[in-house]
Each structure stands twice: as C-alpha cells, then as structure tokens.
Design goal:
heterotetramer; A mainly alpha; B alpha/beta; C alpha/beta; D mainly alpha; A: mainly alpha; ABC transporter involved in vitamin B12 uptake, BtuC; two-stranded antiparallel sheet; 12 helices; C: alpha/beta; 10 helices; 10 strands; globular
C-alpha cells in the first residue's frame, strides 16, 4: 500500500467569527441585561424589573420546555399544550383553596407544604392527562402536521370546556399563601418574595434538566432521538416509551408552570393556558423548534424585555414580544438554535 | 455543437465530507450523457447542484452561457432545466391529467390567472392529452395519481418532464424499482426524446446494457470527482473505471 | 448451512406504494461474512432495513437465531443481538464520540477492554473522544459507526456500505476492523459496492436483482468468475479483471 | 352554461349535496319572506357572512394546506375599517366603501408581512406566528380603547336607507324596511365574493395552490415559486376575510372584539371548514350554515335539556348551553380522524 493512513486530525479550528456566531444566542441575555440597565438608569428599578422579568421568563420556560422537546423528539407540535397549563392551575389552586387554613397560617413550613402539595397534585393530574392525550389525540396523527394542529386544537377546546364543567364558568380569585406575600428590600429595590421563589425554582429546574440531559443515559437517548430516532431504536432503545415519558413530563411541567403562574397572578381562568401559549410559542420559535437551551434563552429574553419595555414605554410592551420575534427571525429564520435533523 | 450546460469546479461539502469535488464538465445539445459511478459517488448530489435543490460550496453552473448557480430551483426550471427524480415525486391527490397540465402551464403566464376557469383553457388540456398519448397514459387520465401502479407513476414522471419541454432533461435512475417488463417502456420514451436531436439529456443509470444502447458519452464520478469522460466503449474499458467500480485490490488485509 | 443465524423466507416489503422486495429468500450462516451484492436500487438496503425492522415485511417470515421475529419491533430485535450500521452511518452528531459509544453499549457501561480494542483499531476515536461526532471527518465518522457496532456483543451485524465514499487508505482500515469483528465470532451480513473489499472479506455471497435473491454461493466462486459477475450484477465490464 | 360559468365548473358532484346547496341558496335568497322575524333575518345574514368567511379560510387551509390562526384578525380589520370610517367620516356610502377597502388593503398588507417571515421557513411556523400576531392585535385593540372602544366596541351609523326606520311599503305581506335592504346588500355582496373565490380555486392559479399542497418540493422543481404562490393566496384570503368583516359590521352596525376578533370565533371558523369539508369551497357553505343554525337554535335545545336534567349534577353542566363548544370540539376531533374530507367528502363518496 502506498497511501499513508489518513488518521491525521482533520478538525480545523473554527474562525473567530464562526465561534462568535455560535455563542451569540448565549450572550443575548447578558447584553439585554446591560442594555436594560443603561436604558433604565436607576439601579433599584432595574433590579426590581430584572427579577420580575427573570421570574416571568422562568415560568414561561417551564411551560415551553416540554412543548419544544416533544417537537424535537417526534416532530409533534401540540397546540393543546396550553390546556395543561390551565388544568394545572385549577388543580393546584383547588388544593391551595382546600387547605386555606394552612395557606393563611403565618408559618413558612405550612405555606410551603401547601404549595408543594398543590404542585404535586397539579403535576400528577396534568401528567396523567398528558398520557391520555398522547394515546387518544396525538398517536393517530404522527407525521401529519396539518392534522396534528387541527386535532390538538380540538383537544384544547374540549379540555377547556371540561374545566368549565368541573370548576364553573367564572374566574377564580384567591390570595397567595401568607409567607409568599410581600416583598424584601435589597439595595433599595423592592423584590417580591414570590418572584424570587419563582426564579429559584426555574433555575433549579433548568440545571436539573441539563444534568439529566448531559449526565444520564435517558438524557442521551432523548438528545440522540431528537437527531435520529430511527437509529436510537436500531441500537435497542424503545423510543416510543421514551417519547411517551417526555410527553408526560412535558405535560406535568406545563401543569407546574400553570400553578406557578396562577400563584403569580392570583387569579385563574380556563383561558389562561391559551393566553400563555402565545408567549410559549414565541419563545419556542425564537429559540429554535426542538431546542431546550434555545427555549430557555428565549424565555428569559421575553420576560426581561416585556418588563423593561413596560417600564420604559408602556404602550409598546404589548407588541414587544412580536417585535422580538420579528427581529430574531430576520436574523435567524429558523430561530436561535435550530435543531438539525439527520434525516 | 454548442454547449448548453456547463459546470466548472462545482463543489459541495457537507461538514468535512466533500460530496462533489470540483466537477467541470460541459454538456452539448443533441447528446445523451450517461453519468455512472458506484453508490455514494455523488451522482444525485451533482444533479441536485445543477437543478438547484442544494447550493454549491464553490464553482459555477452555466446554462446557455448564463450563470444560474444562485437561482432557485423554480427559476432554473423556467430557464430550461428539467429534472425527474429517483423516487417518484408527483402530486398524489390530483388526477393524472392535472399533473401534466400543471407541468405544461408552469412556464406560462396563465399560471397567474386567477379569474379564468381551468376548463376553458382547452389548449392546455389538449397539449396535456397529447403528452399522455405519447406515454400511453391517456386511458387513466382521470385517476388520482395515488392510485396508479408504480410503473405508470414512473411513466407519468417522464411525462411531466416532456410536458415541461426543457432544453436539458435530467433523469435520475428512471427505471429504479421497476419490474423487468415495465422498464423498456420508459427507456423507449427516453430513446424517443433522444431522437429529437436538439435535446440535451443527462442520465444517471446503473444498467450497463442500457447505457451501451442509449448513451453517446459517459462520464464517471467516483468519490465526488470526475474520473473519466468519453465514448462509452472506451470509458467502460478504462482502468480508472474498473477501479472506481471494483475498488482497489486490498493487499494488506 | 445447517443452522443459520438468520433466515428470510419469501419476504415482501413495500415502501409507501412501492413494492421493493419481491420475495427474498436468504440464509446468513453463523460466524462468517455473507456479502449481499447487486446493482444500485435492487433492494439491498431495503433488505437490511426489513431485517432490523425499520420497514415492516408485508409477507414472508424472518427467523433469527431460531425464533420468528417478523412481528417484533426494532428495539427488541436489537436487544436480541442484531447490530445495524446504516448507509448514512446514523451517528449522533450533537453527541460526543464518548456519548455515542455510551449509547451504543445498550446493556451497561462500555467495558474498558472493549474500548481499548476499539481504540487500537481506530486511533482517531481516542483523539476525539470528547469532541462532538459531527465535527469528525467522513472517514472518522465511518470508524465511529463500526466502533459503535463493536461496543457490545452482537450476534449478527447488518452493515450497509461501510466503505462508501472513503479514501483507499481508510477502506483498508475499515476492512481490517470488519475482519476483526469476524474473528470475534460474529456473523456479518455486509452490503458492499467495492468488489475488491467484498472479495477480500466475504465467505459467502448472495446477489440480488429486482427485489429477489438471484444467486447464492461461495464468495470465492463469484470472485473467480467474471462472466458470472457480469451476468449477475453488470458490475464487471468488458476488459475487467 | 351560464350556471356552469357562474360556479366555475365546480359541480357539487352529489345529489344530496346539490339539493342541500340549493335549499340553502333559496332559503337565504328569500329569507325575509320565508322566515319572517328579526331573529331569522339575523341568522340568515350571519350565515351569509360566515359562508364567505369560511370560504376565504378554506382557500388557505383546504386548498393551500396552510393553517392560519389570524383569519379573524383580518375579519376584524374589515369590520373596524367600516366602523371607524363611518364614525370619523360620518354616515354614508363613501365611508362604507373607504372603510371596506382600507380594511382589505390593511389585511392584505399584514398577511404579506406575516407570510414573508414564516412561509419561507416551514409551514408550521405560520400557524404559530399567526396565533401570536393575532392575539397581540386582539390585545392591542382592547387596550387602545380611545380609538376602538376597547372591550365594549362601539356602534356607528350607516346610511339611513339601510336602517330599520326606512319603510318602503309592503311586499308579499312583509313590511319592506331598510333592514331588509341591508340584508340584501350583505347577501349579494357575499354571494358575489363567494363566486369569485369559487372561480379562483378553479382557475389555473388555484390548481397551482393544490399542487403546492400536494407536494411543494415538486411544485418548486417544475418551476412554481412556492413561497410566492402561498403568499398571494394568503393575501387574497386575508382581503376577502376583511371584506366579510366589513359586511358583518354593516349588518350589525356595531364592532367589538367579541364579534370579530376573538379566539373563539377563530375556533368556530376552523370547525366550520373542517366539518364542512376542507379543500372544497362547498364545504364552507354546508359548514357555516350548520354552525350558525346550531349556534342559534341548538343552544336553546341544550338549555331545555339542561333544565330537564337539572337534578343530575354533572350531566346538567355538560348540557349547559354555554358548553356547546365541548360537543363541537368532540365532533371536530372525530371528524378529523374519521371524515377528513368532511360532510361534503362524505356525501361525494357515498354518491
């Protein structure tokens, strides 16, 4: 044999511009924080707005993560995802209202216990509902986007109506548990306690998700399945089970997001999930369909931008998200971190 | 003879993999060129580069002397590049006649006509019927394509190309997956096109007997590069082609 | 061929409305390399995909290791010991080489001895162990696919054109690795266009045409008979060796 | 022959369907005389407008295979166009025309922009982006109450000749008022626009849309610029929806978010087109008629059923007239699974 074995490393170092382009989405949130600071000028207002923006972003992320993952894994877009948000909120808040004595007691332990119970109940119910939804509504329409959209919208209608049947047609007002009311002052900025809790929960969840994705076999299977599901099956993994698991987990997370959002707003309606879905879709689109990291960054940007703009120019706040989406799509038509399918 | 289609230095990379490697080649009017090479040699990718389904990393594609390398597939088709696909690729829910009529109207202003009735454009229908007669599909004209047999779908695929009336015909394994008695019909159609002497035809094909009877010229792709170009008999006999097809002797295993 | 690891009987496969396999009868003996040969588009890849279960067989039976697996789902076929290396390699480019290998070892962590043997066969994989697989070169990716197949004991390997589009030097590396796989006692069903590789590796051969097996026999017999090759595959051209 | 040209050669292709369509047409044409009473006329006008609205939506959903959630936004643009023009320019035919045209132009422009962003990527983007944009616009409209009247909307005046005060004598025992005149304006405008849509889907252009729906990759490969065709279809569909909105506003002499912009309305529209039959304009006629009739009369029925079952707690709630969307949703899901071609497809298949 005359040819030398071609075992030389062939990975060329990426040019600086390419590396910057890759890192750009990650840099957007810090850039937004700095720009917000400069535009607002007042550190304490900025801090207040930032915390509430982050809290909002975290909650949207919790709702969006399941949706985007389900799309990435099985190419299924679930327009009924919003219904799980509403169901979660109603179940969770029912628990809070049912345990009113604990919720209104001035004991942090009891209060948190109520919230924990509410969250667990909500996640259990929405997880179960997600499982049923997948079997009945989604399973027959794999691979057909048009039908998926139609059928899942149908599912959304039915679940929303069922909420009315069970909980009545009116919105429900309630108060947050005692110890989650009010604010703490920090560097002259009033930070609502509940928002801080929301930020912490969101962060913990994101870190946990990342750990699962990076460190566990199930995470590897999901990541590999997003890229090439057929090959994952050929290696011997039952992707269908994994997918159902992700669908259930995503639905449960929507339920969690619903409870958190309900506690944040202190009012719940059957249509709240539908309203949140708008933000969730925007986040999923700008993040890149199928990308959990993209959705995280997108959610934080939507939350921060909405709060900053509401402070700077209230009239523009309504369309700030649409503006953000437009800008991102002009920059990257597939979203910030599109998932590339092998097939 | 004029050069109708020309690629120079045409290259595309996917990641680190060079799928088509600086292919320079000119195709002349009235000539049927067979493109051969082992699986993965880059034949279909070369077609995709010419017809615009994927964008080249470098190099150019010229049609009638004009650079078309940056145009969309639809624009290239308008300028005279007609392409048939390896896997049948039709409008399954529409009728056979409708499929051909769509191909005929594709390059005419009538496609933008919003307020005229399709049934009033009898000229289009007549032309479509003429094409269907030619490929012997006239009797099934009202059937939805999804209900056609595989052989008839392949014929319709050729009919679509004839209906487009392009300057350059590109066939990608037109007889793939056809049974032994169906294939000759399609090959006859291609032979018929060849008889219209001014047409340029590119044909990816594996069956050597087909190539021997149809081709005026063969080019060979191997690992993305053009390794041979010439008369069929002479190319088939060359060492480089033998090697491309058979592989090098493995002395060390 | 008394007790083959795999036997296909009258297998028909449709892809959408296309009838691709028209009754494939095939036996793959144990501990040997069986070459599946034939022109492009005759159904070789479809045969492999039907065996692993990506396409369902419309008719016929697939017997693997004595059991009928015709109705069994892909993951269960894989767990029963069938390894599949697809034509497009099927590597997970977002995952690192290490993660690809971890996934490939389905039943537990990758054994260090196995890993070392893989490193010995494919040194670049050691170099790029923690790099995303998507950044590897074409040849290195192909090494990874074979390495992945070696990550776990499989009884039968289905390998689709492992030398496609590779430089000659890497073709040799690949052939050596396949040979090692064979010495480890595996049975291999190998689709290959490179006839020299087929000749060097194959024990048995099956030639397909138009969705059927048209010839089976010893590889050596086929390799020695240019007229037979021409008749079966149209591969060998005039003046061929 | 004349009829053939009017319906653009697109025959119903089913005897029952033909009979149904004819009944609907005659029923609407003679509505003021056949079904006297305010409520019946109200229903007939609503049916006319919704047939047009659903037909324009089907151009996009059924013929082009694109799902949009912004159709009621365009509908609203037409309605608000007429309302605002009449409010600011004073009552008169000029206001109506200017308002309608401005609404349609705005709708087409908006549709163009949305299409520009989403259609060149993937079709599923379009569904998500239209949903986001439409809801943002709906929120904007209810927030800008100084201009739009906010949640309550606003009433406005139309030319006197079209108002109920204009009495023009009796005909066939029915008092002819401006209201009836107004009905015929709405009916005939809807009819004409409907026939235009029918022509468009049966034109060479319409065939290209169907080809794109069937296989956009191949459509592009034989020389059709897919994005351009989809964009034009989106714009036409939006403009016609806006005109339907204008007619609706003219009839109601009122505009508000609930009657024109709400997401519920969008869902109704989706149900109409899918249940009627996607990809056939006749489906819009059947779907819209059924839907409006159900909305108007079925709710009464449910109300009495709910009263009858008041003793049974859950059942009475399920039968509450406000929950009729629940049953429609179930019907919708079943229809997508089992009758993807809708009622019209069913009738044609059973011919």
């Amino acid at each position: 044999m005359t040819d030398a074995p071609d075992h030389r490393p062939t990975m060329a170092a990426l040019p600086f511009a390419d590396r910057l382009a890759r890192a750009m989405p990650v840099l957007l949130v810090p850039i937004l924080l700095v720009v917000g600071f400069l535009a607002i000028g007042n550190p304490s207002s900025w801090l207040t707005l930032t915390v509430s923006g982050l809290a909002m972003g975290m909650m949207i992320f919790i709702m969006a993560s399941g949706l985007t993952l389900v799309f990435g894994l099985m190419d299924v877009i679930n327009f009924g995802h919003g219904a799980f948000i509403s169901v979660g909120a109603f179940v969770g808040i029912s628990v809070v209202l049912g345990l009113a004595e604990w919720a209104q007691a001035p004991s942090l332990l009891l209060n948190l216990g109520v919230v924990l119970l509410a969250v667990l109940a909500a996640m259990a119910v929405t997880g179960l509902l997600g499982w049923a939804f997948e079997r009945v509504i989604v399973k027959p329409v794999y691979g057909a986007h048009l039908k998926q959209i139609l059928v899942t919208v149908g599912g959304l209608i039915v679940i929303e109506q069922l909420i009315h049947v069970i909980w009545g047609p009116d919105e429900i007002f309630f108060a947050r548990p005692e110890m989650l009311k009010g604010a703490v002052t920090f560097w002259g900025a009033a930070l609502e306690k509940y928002r801080l809790v929301a930020v912490v929960i969101g962060l913990v969840l994101f870190v946990a998700m990342r750990l699962v994705f990076r460190r566990t076999r199930i995470g590897l299977i999901v990541r590999a399945g997003v890229e090439n599901g057929e090959m994952v099956e050929a290696l011997g993994y039952r992707l269908r089970l994994v997918f159902v698991g992700v669908f259930i987990a995503g639905s449960a997370l929507a339920g969690l997001g619903g409870v958190m959002w309900g506690l944040y707003e202190e009012v719940i309606t059957a249509g709240m999930g539908e309203e949140m879905m708008i933000l969730v879709f925007i986040v999923v689109i700008i993040g890149g369909l199928g990308s959990v990291e993209g959705a995280f960054i997108g959610a934080l940007m939507v939350g921060l931008l909405q709060n900053y703009i509401a402070f700077l120019e209230p009239k523009l706040a309504l369309i700030s998200n649409i503006g953000l989406m437009t800008a991102i799509l002009m920059w990257r038509p597939q979203g910030m971190m599109p998932v590339v399918k092998a097939k | 003879m004029t050069e109708v289609l020309e690629t120079s230095g045409l290259t595309v990379r996917f990641g680190g993999h060079v799928a088509v490697d600086a292919v320079s080649c000119a195709f002349r009017a009235g000539e049927l060129t067979a493109i051969v090479g082992p699986n993965g040699a880059g034949k279909t990718t070369y077609f995709n580069l010419i017809s615009g389904q994927i964008a080249a990393s470098s190099g150019s594609v010229r049609l009638m002397g004009q650079d078309i390398g940056r145009l969309s597939p639809s624009e290239r088709c308008k300028r005279g590049l007609g392409r048939a696909f390896q896997l049948t690729n039709l409008f399954p829910g529409l009728s056979v006649l409708e499929n051909v009529r769509l191909a005929i109207q594709a390059h005419r202003p009538v496609s933008a006509s919003l307020f005229s009735m399709v049934s009033r454009h009898t000229g289009l229908t007549d032309e479509a019927m003429a094409v269907l007669e030619r490929v012997r599909l006239a009797t099934v004209k009202d059937q939805p394509v999804s209900e056609l047999s595989h052989g008839n779908q392949r014929k319709l695929e050729v009919a679509m190309l004839i209906a487009l009336d392009p300057k350059v015909y590109m066939f990608d394994e037109p007889t793939a997956g056809m049974s032994g008695d169906e294939a000759p019909v399609v090959l006859d159609l291609i032979a018929g096109l060849k008889a219209q002497t001014d047409r340029t035809i590119l044909l990816v094909e594996h069956k050597m007997d087909v190539i021997r009877t149809l081709a005026d010229r063969i080019i060979v792709l191997h690992n993305g590069a053009l390794v041979a170009d010439g008369e069929p008999a002479e190319v088939i006999a060359s060492d480089v082609v033998q090697e491309a097809y058979m592989g090098k002797e493995l002395t060390d295993v | 061929m008394s007790d083959p690891i795999l036997r296909l009987q009258g297998v028909h496969t449709d892809i959408a409305q296309y009838h691709i396999l028209h009754g494939v009868d095939l036996e793959v003996p144990r501990a040997a390399v069986t070459m599946l040969l034939g022109r492009n588009g005759v159904g070789k890849t479809t045969t492999l995909r039907t065996i692993i279960g990506h396409w369902p067989a419309r008719a016929g039976t697939i017997i693997y290791d004595g059991a009928d697996i015709t109705g069994v789902k892909t993951p269960d076929r894989a767990r029963a010991g069938i390894g599949y290396v697809p034509e497009d390699m099927g590597i997970f480019s977002d995952l690192t080489v290490e993660e690809n290998m971890t996934l490939a070892a389905v039943s537990g962590p990758l054994e260090p001895t196995r890993r070392d043997r893989i490193f010995a066969a494919f040194p670049p994989l050691r170099t790029f162990w923690t790099s995303p697989a998507g950044t590897l070169s074409g040849g290195q990716k192909q090494m990874l696919t074979i390495a992945r197949a070696m990550a776990e004991e499989r009884k039968l390997y289905l390998i689709d054109e492992p030398t496609k589009g590779l430089a000659p030097a890497i073709v040799s590396t690949m052939a050596a690795a396949l040979r090692e796989l064979k010495t480890m006692g595996a049975s291999i069903l190998l689709v290959e266009q490179n006839f020299a590789v087929a000749k060097a590796l194959g024990d048995h051969a099956a030639v397909m045409d138009d969705g059927r097996i048209v010839w089976t026999g010893e590889m050596a017999e086929l390799a020695a008979d240019a007229a037979l090759q021409d008749r079966l595959m149209g591969l060998s051209m005039e003046g061929g060796r | 022959m004349m009829l053939h040209a009017l319906i653009s050669g697109d025959r119903p292709r089913s005897r029952i369907l033909t009979a149904l369509l004819l009944a609907i047409f005659l029923g609407l044409l003679f509505a003021p005389f056949l079904f006297p009473g305010v409520r019946a006329l109200e229903t007939a006008a609503r049916i006319s407008v919704f047939i047009l609205l659903a037909a324009s939506y089907d151009l996009l959903l059924g013929y082009t295979g694109v799902v949009s959630f912004a159709h009621t936004m365009f509908f609203g643009m037409g309605a608000y166009g007429v309302g605002l023009a009449s409010q600011h320019m004073g009552r008169g035919y000029g206001s109506l025309i200017v308002g309608s045209l401005a609404g349609a132009a705005l709708a087409a422009a908006f549709a163009f922009l949305i299409a520009l962003f989403s259609l060149r990527v993937r079709a599923i983007f379009f569904a998500m982006i239209t949903l986001a944009v439409a809801s943002a616009v709906a929120v904007l409209v209810s927030q800008l109450s100084s201009i739009t009247g906010g949640e309550d909307g606003f009433t406005f005046q139309i030319p006197r000749a079209l108002g109920p005060a204009n009495r023009m004598g009796e005909f066939m025992g029915v008092q002819i008022t401006g209201k009836i005149l107004n009905y015929y304006v709405v009916f005939f405008c809807s009819l004409i626009l409907f026939l235009v849509l029918l022509r468009i889907v049966n034109s060479p252009f319409g065939r290209v849309l169907q080809a794109i729906r069937e296989n956009d990759f191949r459509a592009e490969a034989i020389g059709y610029r897919v994005v351009r065709y989809r964009t034009i279809a989106t714009c036409i569909s939006a403009a016609v929806a806006a005109l339907a909105g204008s007619l609706f506003a003219l009839w109601l002499r009122y505009v508000g978010p609930d009657t024109t912009l709400s997401f519920e309305l969008m869902l109704d529209l989706l149900l109409i087109v899918v249940i009627g039959g996607m990809g056939t304009i006749w489906g819009a006629v059947i779907g819209a008629t059924l839907m409006v009739l159900a909305q108007t009369y079925l709710q009464d029925l449910m109300g009495s059923a709910a009263e009858a079952t008041a003793a049974i707690p859950l059942l009475s709630r399920l039968l509450d007239p406000d929950r009729w969307l629940l049953w429609l949703g179930v019907l919708f899901i079943l229809s997508v699974y089992f009758f993807p071609a809708g009622i019209v497809g069913r009738l044609r298949a059973g011919r």
